[in-house]
Structure prediction request, 751 residues.
Amino acid sequence: MFYNQKYRNVFFQICLIASIFGLAYWLVDNTRANLAQIGLDIGFDFWNQPAGFDIAFTLIDYNSATSTYSRVFFIGVLNTLFVSMLGIVAATSLGFVIAFLSLTQNLLARKIAGFYVEIFRNTPLLVQCVFWYFGVITALPSVRNSLNIWDISFINQRGMYFPKPLFSDIIYVVLIVALCCVAAAIILSWLNNKRQIKTGKRLPIFWINSAIMIMIPASLAWSLGLTVSWDIPVLQGFNFRGGILFPPELMALFLALTMYTSAYIAEIVRSGFLSVDFGQTEAAKALGLRQGFINKLIIIPQALRVIIPPLTNQYLNLIKNSSLAVAIGYPDLVSVFTGTTLNQTGRAIEIVLITMLFYLFVSLVISMLMNWYNRRQALVER
Amino acid sequence: MTKQKTLPHQQYNAYWYQRVLAWIIRNFFSSITNTVLTVLLGYILYVTIPPLFDWLFIKATFSPAESRAACNPDGACWSVITSRWEQFFYGFYPEDQRWRINLAFIILIMLTFWMLFKKLPARKYAGLILFLVSPGLCFWLFYGGWGLPVVETGLWGGLMLNLIAGGVGIVFTLPIGVILALGRRSELPVISTFCVIFIEFVRGVPFITVLFMSSVMLPIFLPDGIVIDKLLRAMIGIAIFGGAYMAEVVRGGLQALSKGQYEAAYALGLGYWKVNRLIILPQALRIVIPGIVNSFISLFKDTTLLTQIGIFELLGIAQAATRDPNWAGLGKEGYIFTALIFFSVCLAMSRYSLHIEHKLNQSSHKKRL
Prediction:
């Protein structure tokens, strides 16, 4: 009976399950014993206790005296997502620019792109982070000698100050109308595609849609009298007041994440475009398409198919890498929750578990979104 | 993006200066956009490179010194590195014992060359020695015992520690990755589910949380009497994290093999382990050598995170050096030096992987076709 493959398989699997459960039981038992020794147990009652420490950069209201650890968690999550979003947008744009530089005929551009990619891919992200933070940004001029950009933005040791737009209340009306216009534009282009398939004729949809999306909200804003005033940062005493402040930690982390990831994205995009056979371009030219149409209809769709899966991976990596914030003190999830909160409450197991679940959740959501998009883009085989 | 071919008569009948001119025009001024790009990029380089070069080399101070005051303020102050370079490489390892580290690395480097260069004899033993014998030997040299004075792991540091952590990663992640990858493709549902959950869980969380887990939480999980060294705990984290990524790389190789290989091997009457050891893995691993090297590179870069759990590897030493009041404000120099070292090691590895990839692209069965 032992030599029967079927029985053996079942036997091995039962062994594995038993050993996993045995190991888990042993670990849980040890943990309980260890925690009992230091007088702790597993519990989430810290969740509603006041945190009592300051956070340098918050997107939602926070008061160190009254806000709870749950608030700290959400601040960490928002800060992580905030820097990740900024990083993803910037890294994608920069990565495409570098990729196009490396695909031009210009030797200088190709060499520069190559150097860029090699330098930023082959140095650790953490080194880049601390380089930007301790090497560059904290070495910026002091508040009194700030770098002045046209008297509206200022850069100094304490961060970057931007003017903050203040709109009158009509902005909400205009925003809703603008959203409706975007929806209308999408529907119109869909209708246009259907019409093209049916009749072969095509409206100049790009111009029509641009007109809808820009002219209607703009004219509405003008006719309702939308006013914009700018809250410009002003030097008062020892610091700037007003405007939007990007603290130095955010700047350093953003720069490091963007440059590191853009090097990878540039390589992905480059290989994606190179993977489209030159024969495709030649065939498209033989059909009489213009260069713009060749790119839009032939090259980019095929390249995207190759680019998107690894690009998703890079986005996920960027979100996970944003946890390096802890090294420079940007208050992301790992820094304020897995760091400060853990130190204050001593609830290591619960907090690390929550942190890991958050990252797993984000990974899951993004890969699901990207799989959905990828399925739409993928080759439909007969 | 378009390809241009020079015709044969253009190549051979032109004078050399015509050819040079043609090359320049083709590469820099072939169209209006190309010319604009050349001028723009050339201007950016002209503005940035000379001052940078000045700062890095011409005006920089290289000689060892007592403090920052001895440096030229207009240039880089490399003295912070030259006056304590031993710390950057060996950490706080006792000075009279450093020959042990040098010896171990010389042995490792020689073994690696033996393994990588085709022309040397008995190459298959080199890999075995490198992966089975040398870890023990190196551990003995580093840690001591059996006649050598013991050096506690708390004194290890600097680049040496990055190399050790990377090396341990290389030795352990590959087997873990192979086992996980085989497990994930296993037909037994329990084993494959377990492997999928493990791999996806580890790959879904940041490395720093895995490190926290292994350094902070492992002691809570283990019974009271067992104390694991801090460095060892970090290594466990590295092995788990690297192993999960390696598993995905190996799985790529396994999926690239045709089913016929399995069927043929089973038809010969080989068992599961023999099929994998003799037929599948040698082919699958060869296909994914570039991927394996790439994950070694990221593993090596990730060793800088050990600083975050209080282990003084190269970056930690650089940070400590630039926080010394005598050298305060020299962050740039310390980090540029650190980056340079990582850059050279990683570049060498990535060039090797490119070289292998190139060789694989013109591999044996393609030639046969």
